[in-house]
Amino acid sequence: MVTNHAPWHRGAVGYEVYVRSFADASGDGIGDLEGVRRHLDHLVWLGVDAVWITPFYPSGGFDAGYDVTDYTAVSAQHGTLEDFDRLIDEAHQRGLRVLVDIVPNHSSHLHPWFQAAVEDPDGQYRDYYIWRDPKPDGSPPNNWVSHFGGPAWTLEPRSGQYYLHLFLPEQPDLNWTNPAVRREFEQILRFWCKRGVDGFRVDVAYGVAKDPEFRDNPQLMPITYAMEPNEVFEAFDHLHDIEQDHNLEVFEEWRSIASEYDVLLIAEVRTDDPDRASRYTAAGTAFDLVFYLWPGWAPWDPALLVSRTRAMCDRCRDGVAWVLDNHDQSRSVSRYGGGEVGRQRSLAMMTLLASLGGMPFIYQGQELGLEDGQVATADLADPVATRNAGATGRDGSRTVMPWDDGPNNGFGPVTPWLNATTRPPADTVAEQRKRPGSPLSIHRRLLEVRRDHPDIWQEPIQWLESEPTTAALRRGEVVVVANLGPESAEVELGGPGWKVTFTSWQGSVARVDGDRLLVPMETTVILTRG
Ligand code: BGC
What we know:
The chain is of the alpha/beta class.
């Protein structure tokens, strides 16, 4: 048995770069690797330890890079392999680790493997994908639905067979029961390991294994035309298409390569159930960390936020990659009510997540307290929105990073690929760096406190007595109290000598009175002693 071995991530904080929207150095309106390189100092100044870069591979362009046509190259839109090498080099010189996104569940339909699979149904590539005959009435082989709307099967007219796609028809699912597919990905992993990456964020790790019998999923409720694709997806109990127990077998093979190069493996999972999510790291034979996405889509519901994050923390402490914002969901500030209220709540939640162990991630622009960007209907780019009338889509969280108040908020010289309303100066990095109470300054201070008080990530957690809308915990000589409720909360500290070292919201004053702490509403405080 190979055990996990990537200790650098203990205590580390990650940062997600959505490469298309981070910075455009080449001037074509699309973010690129050189743009990331030029802004590495922002990440160092903010205080993160690792950067995860979303896919920059050649792609069909149907799902913003998550439909890969070549897994071992850089798309011309995003630069060159030399740019990648330079980026890694300069990141490492600054002490920053680099994680890349790998997409094993599906390729692009334009990938040469799929093209060959269609061209030659008897050839070696046919079995790289998942094909089934229609039912006798011509309909798809089972009732599985795509995450992005419609059935998960598309008929390929030449052979008369259906192929499976858990996402777009342009993203055919790879067949992980085929050892040849496994060998291909071993080569791909080695390719990037040899180029010096420090880890992989594994896209849709929850989907690679399917029910061997391809049984129907039980349907939980009727489907109506008014439903968005994610609501249709939720109308089924996904017993057979995703989150299969044998998913991990694939990644146990990856583990030995990851250990050989000492790189990190982080799984993207979809389940919000802490028991199921923690399975991915439990045995220590597959993933180092599991991205727990639930806080990234849950609305503001203080008691639920407290109970479920606490449950996930208790199940899997150092194995969680915590996410509050990412490129697939509405930004937390918007989800939590928008404006100052949304920002206050987002910071309170982030401070809690940053105190639970594992590896918290910040999504580009989250550190600025951004709300979702405003994109006109005619400019929508996400297929979830453009292919499903009335669906919200993911463009709001994907608009460009506002660096300053120059043209295109300093993203680049031409109109960005995702045209959106310009952000006001108060939302930009340049302005927020100057303002001590800005969300940027508060996030930076939070990371500084973590570095100055390593108890916050390395000591055992002891939960303190509190209201259901408050999470209170002690780790060594650090106490963290997240009062997400609508009134101030009082917490017994079990002894004197504590002082407030960090408050997630500048406008609110937390007070220590002997061995009791009073925390204002929707605020998280960090206390230290000694
Ligand atoms: C990525 C999405 C992408 C999907 C399909 C996800 O989980 O984060 O952006 O559309 O995988 O690859």
